[in-house]
Amino acid sequence: MPKAVFAIGRDRQPLPVPRSMVDRSTLVNIPKSTRSVIAKAEAAEVGGRYADAYASYFEVGELMLDTADYARAKKNLLKALDMAKKMKSLRHQTEANLHLSEAFRGMQKYVPALKHAQAARELAQRSRDFRKIAESWLKEGVVLLNHAEALQEDEGSASYYKSAITAFKEVLSLISSFEANVRDLYELDAEINIGICQKGLENFDEAETAFLRCIIMAKRLGKNEHVRLSQVSENMGILYLEHGKPLDALKNFQVAFDNVGLNDTESQASLKMNIAYCQRNLNKIDEALKSAKESREIAERSHLEESIELAQRFITEIETILTQDRELKRMEEELLRPGGAVNAHQALENRIRAAEMNMKADRPDKAVGHLKVAAGMIRKSKSPPPEEVHNWARVQAFLGECCFL
């Protein structure tokens, strides 16, 4: 799944990437060799035992999917599909096509991914397998969603998002007769992806509504679906972060982190960085530094080089900010210490200089505080009118600049 990523900088916004829901979230270890399984498949194929050949090719293909080796997955699943055709088994052809759709999607080859999802649906319709029909629509929707995410806005991404929403709504239209636990999972996956599509279309209210509905569903499903709760909470956090709501984003990222898979260290590191960024936006600098260091520690344990680099850049920047804060505080104290000004005019100048220092240090709130004090000093001033007007104009100009910071 795509992860949230960031562009670190004092005046730059994060660039989060939503995580599409797919139905493969459990990773397994690759055995030392799959050659014996492939050899078994080839021998079965030569001997005309197509069912055995299918089972072995499919086993390897599925294993490669689980470990994100999409090229090898495709190769073995195409073999499995060929065996299924020789068996004239609609069920096995359907399953192979569904997995091939996922393999091509992982390779970012969206046209063949879409083709195999649609082929799976046609086969499932012939056998009236409504669960596989729903699964094919879900696969198709995720392919369209990923394709939309890969495009720029002016390249027609909106049409792909809308087509994806249509596919996910097809899923919702099919599941009423499913068993409750199966129905709930299909509904949750479809709704999460609808929310991501609405977010891609910049329909904030619709996306928020979809995600809130998903959070309620995920909580209702209980501990068994904590990973889905993590994923939808992460997407909700990204939505809020992009719309300037860091406090709401922080709450959702924390829920996501608390429910993420124990072995999913990549998501753990990413979520900790999301949390750190929100804390930075909320001016909780010390907490942001702590979260970033925790992200780095998680990444180091799993040798996640990109995550380590991201966290380290953030840590370096935060430590620089803290150093600047300490120096700024020292300068302010020196400038505004009691008795530091020889007269009222000097006191006013020092106050305006303190405001200016905070503006340059990207501290508009503190700058405004100093300027308000300066404005009060001017009102009480006995300076000649021209000088009073000049100082008032300076304060108002600085206040205007603060509004743009």
UniProtKB/TrEMBL annotation:
InterPro entries: TPR-like_helical_dom_sf (IPR011990), TPR_rpt (IPR019734). SUPFAM superfamilies: TPR-like (SSF48452). It holds the Pfam family TPR_12. Transmembrane segments: none annotated. PANTHER family: RAPSYN-RELATED, TETRATRICOPEPTIDE REPEAT PROTEIN 28. This is TPR-like protein. The lineage of its organism: Eukaryota, Fungi, Fungi incertae sedis, Chytridiomycota, Chytridiomycota incertae sedis.
